[in-house]
Amino acid sequence: MKKFTFLVAAALVFFSVLSPVTAFAAYEPDFEVRTQAVYLENLDTGMVVYEKNADEKMYPASLTKIMTAVVVLDYMKENGLDLDTETASLKQYLQDEIYGTGSSLGGILLNEELTIRGLLYALLLQSAGEAALILADYVGDGSVTHFVDMMNDKAAQLGCTGTHFANPHGLHDPENYTTARDMAIISKYAMADPTFAEMVSTTSKDVGPTNKHDSLVEISTNKMLFQSSEYYYAPAVGIKTGTLEESGRCLASQATSGGYSYLLILLGSPLTEADGSATTPEFLNFYEGRKLFQWAFESFSVRTVVDRGEELAEVPVKYSFKTDHMMLATDGQCTTLMPSSLDLSSVQYVYDLPETLYAPIEKGQTVGTLRLMLADEEIGSVPLVATGSVEASKLLTFLGWFGNAIHSFQVKFVLVLVVVLITLYSTLMIHANKRRRRKGKYSTYRDRSGGRDRYV
Fold it and tell me: What digits encode the pLDDT tens for the residues 315-344?
């Protein structure tokens, strides 16, 4: 009866694995996403709930300045330098490089000295191109090129595989590119720095006084942070915007609500419609960013799929007189981000188990793994452990060993060799006996006539 129960359970598991699962639409927003490349990750679980062309190389525009800030902040920490006492100024060659390019500026004048903290605020809020060059010159020891090399080294260190920087400000250059996935990696690293996180969540900052200004106010370009903006989104906490004709509108943003946090990267939101007119709404990056955040917060929640101690599988046991099966239980809880409306029965249980267990078995011994699948994607896994202990029978163990031994190649080879030797020996003995019998047929007698012995 136990064996029959096991076979029925195994059959149910087998057919449940083969059952087709309809891909649920909850991982697709219920609205059109016009931005060319998108990456939306739940930061609490690391689950990517939506992506579109996430590995396509794109121009990042001023999102480049996120990496510029990362390199500066790391350099300051590694060298024990104070953001509020260290200063740098706008040199002539830097002004010549940035003025007239159409870059956004922070109002910094030639030879004006600002603290490194002030320059970072200008860089991240006003998206000041001259601040990017001043910081690059300062950290690069007078060489912007060297600083850019540091940016690329950092990108490689973080594991970015589709990113290359050509400048610190993000003005168009064919060699200045990234991907939505890589920009998410860079943004997460940046937001882990409290100084960076505080700066990008600020709407305005007076970085004066300086040797040129009594007051120099830098204002954020992120319209999602301003209550007066039609794009305002209260849960948003930064991060950075970017716009170029070649790149379209870009956005790196993070939002927190109801105990959940999401990171969103948008690259290539259109600037115009097909007829050349401005998009409606005009700032499609902010509009789609807010809608994607709202969709994520409303659609997903962390849910418990299996609890610790659930008995979910049974495996045959050998070498024991006391039992011929063992129940297996989960040795952990699996909680994961899932669509709130999804029925848990949609989750498939896939068992990675041995065909048979051999006594002795210890209670709590890890036997296999339960993998939890949703629409052909693994959403989690838990170990499966034995629910009891089983002693081994010495007799059954020996018989099992002997049965296995006679099926092994080495034993088979020896047996065949023995049979061959016995056969050969028997054949030789038969031939020897025949020769002796033939000799036994001859006898001697005295040839009376000739006086000699003759043999017949």
Answer: 998 877 678 888 999 999 998 888 888 889
Q: Are 151 and 68 in contact (CB under 8 A)?
A: yes
Residue 396, pLDDT score? 54
Task: Give whole-number Cα distances, 317 to 285, 311, 326, 355, 405, in Å.
Answer: 60, 16, 6, 9, 19
Does the N-terminal peptide bond of residue 239 adopt cis geometry, omega within 30 degrees of 0? yes
Kind and range of the H or E element at 239?
strand 236-244
Q: How many Å apart are CA 5 and CA 137, to the nearest integer?
A: 74
The span from the CA of 368 to the CA of 13, in Å, is: 15
Sequence-ordered list of residues with C-beta below 8 angstroms from that of 136, at least 6 positions apart, any chain: 68, 144, 147, 148, 168
| Tokens found for residue 434 | 């025949």
* Dihedral of alpha carbons 22, 28, 30, 36, sign: negative
Q: Please name which of 249, 122, 238, 127 lies closest in space to residue 191, comparing C-alpha atoms.
A: 238
Token pair recorded at residue 375: 């629409």
- If you search the block for the tokens 């001859």, which residue do you land on? 442
pLDDT score at 290: 98
Which one, of 71, 230, 56, 223, lies nearest residue 156 by Cα?
Answer: 71
Cα–Cα distance between 408 and 388 in angstroms, integer? 32
Give the DSSP letter of residue 454: E
* Nearest CA-CA partner of 294 in 341, 343, 258: 258
**List of the chain residues with pLDDT < 50:** 1-26, 443-445, 455-456
pLDDT attached to residue 230:
97
**Residue recorded with tokens 């080495």:** 410
- What token pair was written down for 220? 């954020």
- pLDDT computed for residue 31 by the predictor: 95
**330 forms bridges with which residues in the sheet?**
384
The H or E element spanning position 64 is: helix 64-78
Q: What does the buried/exposed string (b/e) look like for 51-80 if buried means 16 or more CB atoms within 10 Å of the residue's CB?
A: bbbbeeebbbbbbbbbbbbbbbbbbbeeee
Alpha-carbon torsion, ordered 217, 220, 226, 230, to 10 deg: 130
Sign for the CA dihedral angle at 28, 29, 34, 36 comes to negative
Alpha-carbon distances of 142 from 77, 106, 125, 184, rounded to whole Å = 19, 21, 24, 30
Chain Cα centroid distance, residue 383: 20
Amino acid (one-letter) located at 2: K
